[in-house]
Design brief:
alpha+beta; disordered N terminus; 2 domains; TIM Barrel; 7-stranded antiparallel sheet
């Protein structure tokens, strides 16, 4: 345990002084600060996070100071309870977004959530500091003239009418109709907040993030801030960007992308290049135009974006013509530009054409939509793939989110534990993975914690044929 850590008060107790010239760096200000401008932090207000050692075996520690009352106390109480239970031990950092945040905990934790966590509310993103008034460069209580904070004087704040330091913390505020000062913590570099789902969910404190880039002030009053990193923020800032790293660490290998998926190919290429993980993943991408004779030029663009010399699976995207030939992409496979070729569709109107291509061309792979409540492919297409020796990848396993909306508020059946299922996402995915024609499932998500939960579907037992029908009937009864 760290015995005592000191933090600079921002000269809150000293009289206002004219800016020095030339302007000093923060490190110079801290080095020159007298003892009276520092305050000891109680050990009970410190959250200590040890990361895995770096490649040279050096320890990496991040120390977080929790915010004092009256701010965010419901979340902070939960954080204290979670820390006492060592709930974060073995959890992962599941998101690192450049110039934004590093995020950890949540669904990556290995232990049950301890009982007794307090309910949280969006209303508690702010706190009442009572009636205050501006006195020069200071903010004071109206009744007692007691010092509250030192005003920020550099420029206009577009996010709040009043910004100041309060006990060394960055705070913004606005007056209420009652005359009270309604205040909230400010998102600055190093501040620590609570991950949450869509409102009205406000998060419990089990998933946390640290700001590692420019201040995302649009998050003020939209997410609870609970502390700040006072040591080791540079370690979080230096982590590899993206979520693919954590997908691979969790056992995932398939990355399905396409030029039509916005900047996806470029992001995947950057992450794999920066982490050295290219040889640990199977990259599937797609040709959107596949004009005869121009397939190689289109593929070269994919190779450049993905920063690789070879694509594992090259697919003709959303085939519609039953007479579609694969000679062009097969020629690229013969040249060693790709390892496998395939076709895709997620449109029922193209199922007949897809079946015809499978039977005639016998592609290496088919990517097609399939879900527990969307089983049309079971009748003809999946048997055709088995006959042709075509491997099957599944798209849209959650029906574009339809299944989660259907299951919202429903209890996962107790018998799901019989095939090692811990969530609705895993329930839907295990149903698909258990089909003998299916080789892999590609669930799209923008949340790393959902991706990590999805990976759990590939572990443990799968349901047998009888259980699959029971699963389908259970969902249909919704």
């Amino acid at each position: 345990m760290i015995p005592t850590i000191l933090t600079l008060l921002g000269m809150a107790l000293a009289p206002a002084a004219a800016p020095s010239s030339p302007q000093q760096a923060p490190s110079e200000i801290a080095a020159a600060a007298p003892v009276r401008d520092w305050r000891a932090i109680a050990e009970s207000d410190l959250l200590v996070m040890d990361l895995a050692p770096d490649r040279a075996g050096r320890p990496r520690r991040v120390v977080i100071q929790l915010m004092p009352a009256p701010f965010s106390q419901a979340w902070i109480g939960n954080i204290r309870r979670l820390a006492a239970a060592r709930w974060w031990d073995g959890a992962a950092i599941n998101r690192v977004q450049d110039d934004y945040v590093a995020q950890w905990g949540g669904d990556t934790a290995k232990h049950p959530v301890p009982a007794g966590l307090a309910a949280t509310s969006q209303a508690d993103y702010v706190a009442d500091l009572g009636r205050t008034a501006v006195d020069g460069a200071l903010l004071r209580e109206v009744a007692t003239r007691r010092f509250v904070g030192r005003l920020a004087t550099a420029g206009h704040d577009a996010y709040a009418p009043l910004t100041f330091t309060w006990r060394g913390w960055p705070i913004a505020a606005e007056p209420a109709a009652t005359g009270a000062t309604i205040a909230w913590p400010v998102h600055c570099y190093g501040m620590v907040g609570v991950g949450r789902d869509m409102p009205p969910d406000a998060g419990s404190g089990a998933e946390l993030y640290a700001v590692i880039g420019h201040a995302p002030r649009h998050l003020d009053r939209n997410i609870a801030l609970v502390g700040r990193a006072i040591e080791g923020i540079e370690l979080l800032s230096a982590l590899p960007r993206g979520t693919e790293l954590y997908k691979v660490a969790g056992g995932g290998t398939l990355i399905d992308t396409a030029p039509s998926y916005g900047q996806a190919e470029g992001v995947v290429g950057d992450v794999l290049a920066n982490t050295g993980l290219r040889n640990k993943v199977f990259i599937a991408t797609k040709l959107e135009d596949f004009v005869p004779g121009k397939e190689e030029a289109e593929t070269r663009d994919c190779l450049k974006a993905l920063k690789t010399s070879k694509i594992d699976l090259l697919q003709l995207h959303n085939v519609r013509d039953p007479n579609q030939r694969m000679a062009g992409v097969d020629a690229l496979k013969a040249k060693g530009i790709c390892r496998y070729t395939g076709i895709t569709t997620t449109f029922k109107s193209a199922y007949a054409a897809t079946e015809a291509i499978i039977k005639r061309e016998k592609p290496d792979f088919l990517l097609i939509d399939y879900a527990i409540d969307n089983r049309d492919v079971e009748a003809r297409i999946l048997p055709a793939c088995q006959d042709a020796g075509t491997a099957v990848l599944i798209a849209l396993p959650f029906g574009r989110g339809r299944l989660f909306r259907t299951a919202l508020g429903k209890q996962l059946p107790e018998w799901a534990a019989e095939f090692d299922c811990a969530s609705w996402g895993q329930f839907f995915l295990k149903f698909l993975l258990a089909h003998p024609a299916v080789h892999a499932v590609a669930p799209g998500t923008s949340k790393a914690q959902h991706m990590i939960d999805n990976l759990g579907a590939g572990r443990g037992r799968l349901p047998d044929a009888k259980t699959r029908e029971r699963m389908a009937q259970y969902v249909e009864a919704f």
